[in-house]
């Protein structure tokens, strides 16, 4: 039931939508987009080359939280599993960090509740598109979260 839309999107389309945020950040306009989208640089698990992915995020207590809609199949998530050292560009900041992967549905549901409380229209629309009623019941969030993965990035102390 959940995640049908993402699994049917051709991979080249997903790659095309990565370009505009990268261009916005490259020309110095990251603060305009940075309230919702950051640029995550991972090291490719096979290529060992830097891979940049624009992602929605939440900052909670100085840590960056990223949800993988494709769950553990997301390339950037799999890259982190192979090498948790990452680079983050968010707004006008750029920093290194250590990423921790989380696959526990209860922890991911907690994160979804935070996102829904902070961005009720945007996250509500995303959840409705996945067939959920709004406001969702906790059991529905946990069921949905079972298909997702979460990453917490702790900025490195420099």
Describe the structure.
The structure is a single chain. The protein has a single domain, classed as Electron Transport, Fmn-binding Protein, Chain A (Pnp Oxidase, Chain A), CATH 2.30.110.10. The protein contains 8 helices and 7 strands. The chain has a 7-stranded antiparallel β-sheet, sandwiched between helices. Strand 3 and strand 4 form a beta hairpin.
Which helices and strands, and how do they pair?
Layout: H1 4-7, H2 11-16, H3 19-26, H4 30-33, E1 37-43, E2 50-56, E3 58-60, E4 63-68, H5 75-82, E5 85-90, E6 93-102, H6 105-118, H7 120-129, H8 138-145, E7 149-155
Antiparallel strand pairs: 1-2, 1-5, 3-4, 4-7, 5-6, 6-7
Helix pairs in contact: 6-7, 6-8
Keywords:
29% strand; seven-stranded antiparallel beta sheet; Pnp Oxidase, Chain A; 158 residues; alpha+beta; 7 strands
Strand order of the largest sheet: 2-1-5-6-7-4-3
Give a count of the beta strands, DSSP E runs of length 2 or more: 7
Secondary-structure element series: HHHHEEEEHEEHHHE
Q: What characterizes the major β-sheet? A: 7 strands, antiparallel
Q: How far apart, in Å, are the first and last alpha carbons?
A: 44 Å
Query: How large is the share of residues in beta strands?
Result: 25-35%
Helix percentage range: 25-40%
Which parts are unreliable, with pLDDT below 50 for 5 consecutive residues or more?
A: 1-7
Tell me the name of the CATH class: Mainly Beta
CATH superfamily caption: Electron Transport, Fmn-binding Protein, Chain A
CATH-defined fold name: Pnp Oxidase, Chain A
Helix count, DSSP H or I runs of 4 or more residues: 8
Number of domains: 1
By secondary-structure content and strand pairing, the structural class works out as alpha+beta
Shape: globular
Q: What does the average pLDDT come to?
A: 85
| Rg (CA only) | 15 Å
CATH architecture, by name, is Roll
């Amino acid at each position: 039931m959940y995640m049908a839309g993402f699994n049917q999107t051709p991979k080249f389309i997903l790659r095309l939508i990565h370009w505009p945020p990268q261009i916005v950040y490259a020309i110095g306009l990251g603060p305009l987009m940075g309230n919702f989208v950051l640029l995550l640089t991972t090291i490719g698990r096979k290529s060992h080359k830097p891979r940049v992915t624009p992602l929605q995020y939440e900052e909670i207590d100085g840590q960056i939280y990223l949800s993988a809609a494709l769950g553990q199949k997301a390339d950037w998530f799999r890259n982190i599993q192979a090498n948790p050292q990452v680079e983050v560009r968010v707004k006008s900041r750029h920093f290194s960090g250590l990423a921790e992967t989380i696959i526990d549905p209860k922890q991911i549901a907690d994160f979804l509740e935070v996102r829904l409380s902070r961005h009720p229209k945007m996250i509500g629309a995303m959840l409705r598109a996945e067939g959920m009623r709004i406001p969702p019941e906790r059991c529905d969030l946990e069921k949905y979260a079972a298909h997702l993965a979460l990453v917490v990035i702790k900025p490195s102390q420099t």
